[in-house]
Amino acid sequence: MTSFGRLPKSQSVGVFDAQLAKPFKASQLYNTLLRLLTSGEREEEPVAVTGDGRQLMSSLRILLAEDNAMNQKVALRLLERLGYRADVASNGLEALAALERQPYDVVLMDVQMPELDGLDATRRICEQWPPETRPHIIAMTANALPEDREACFKAGMNDYVAKPIRADELAAALKRARPLRDRNGGSADSEVSLEAAALKHLRDLGGDEFIAEVVDIFLADSPALIASLRSALERQDTEELRRAAHTLKSNGATFGAAAFAELCRSAEQHAKEGRLDGVSQLLDRIEHEYRVLQEALASLRSEPVT
After folding, report:
1. Burial class of 66 by CB neighbour count within 10 A (0 to 12, 13 to 18, 19+)
2. Torsions phi, psi of 63, nearest 5?
3. pLDDT of residue 186 exceeding 50
4. Quick one: which of 84, 37, 76 has its CA closest to 56?
5. Is residue 204 part of a domain?
6. What is the CB neighbour count within 10 angstroms for residue 105?
7. Per-residue model confidence (pLDDT) at position 251
8. In angstroms, rounded to a whole number, what is the distance separating the alpha carbons of residues 250 and 239?
9. Which of 35, 67, 271, 301 has CA atoms 20 to 30 A from the CA of 147?
């Protein structure tokens, strides 16, 4: 039990069976004891698998904010099978308290919780933490209508998974998240932002030279398309907004830039439905993600894909 967050692997593996950050909640202690007593296994650093089948040490620090004990158990087991582990908060107030104790890269935020729900908790997080130190917030809700999804994004959430949560959707959402250290001066590693399978497909088509040519086209065309998003929104031109978002979505997906493509898909859907409320904030996020993608592609452009 430590007040200093998680101990590094070099100090903990082979020494401790598990770790808990103080102050911890009864649910966190319960889940830890349950895992240890039923499996008899020590806690190990989680392993994630990339698109090309390689195993990497998972570096995401995850907080699960969920009030339903059964849902907690299911989510923790899904995370475990995907190679992650998480701390647990039972409502929005506990989630805020946990974030004040230590940083998290990702918060899996249930929308409907007692005391402070997920939407209000997210608003407070956005007020209290600047973007560079703010966790990537993934909404979890059984309400899957477009207006519910929009409410989550408008509150400041970054992504969305519908309940009951499926392993593939959760894995995809977590893959779109980046550790705080990579967002704060760390290198924008292309493996973080780009799916290995998509890069392999491009390389199979024509090798590194072909990838470089495609990257150059994308970087040349994207600024004008992103500018079109803004001008179309100002003029309330939903058709131009839809076309530009669709093209950016398709181009981003070619590189496996899942986070960027998903944001553009959301903008495209808004334009199709003629719903422009909240699109300005969505475009802010597209522009931010594009800057991240630019760095990843510049690195990819200068180094051979392996």
Report:
1. buried
2. -115, 125
3. no
4. 84
5. yes
6. 19
7. 92
8. 17
9. 67
HSE-CB at 156 with a 13 A cutoff on CA atoms is: 18
Q: Check if the beta carbon of residue 39 is closer than 8 Å to that of residue 77.
A: no
Domain assignment present for 6: no
CATH code of residue 163? 3.40.50.2300
CB-based burial, 209-230: b 16+ in 10 Å, e otherwise: eebbebbeebeeebeebbebbe
8 A C-beta contact, residue 88 and residue 28: yes
Q: Kindly report the average pLDDT of the chain as a whole number.
A: 81
Q: Is residue 92 part of a domain?
A: yes
Distant-in-sequence, close-in-space partners of 221: CB < 8 Å, separation ≥ 6 = 247, 251
Nearest CA among 221, 201, 191, 224 for reference residue 297? 191
pLDDT of residue 50: 37
Q: What percent of the chain has pLDDT over 70?
A: 80
- pTM value is 0.48
What tokens does 85 get?
């582990």
**Side-chain half-sphere exposure of 165, counting CA atoms within 13 A:** 27
Higher pLDDT, 60 or 43: 60
pLDDT digits (tens, 9 = 90+) for 235-264: 999 999 999 999 999 999 898 888 888 889
* Domain range enclosing 274: 190-302
The whole-angstrom separation of Cα 111 and Cα 121 is 9
Same domain, 80 and 194: no
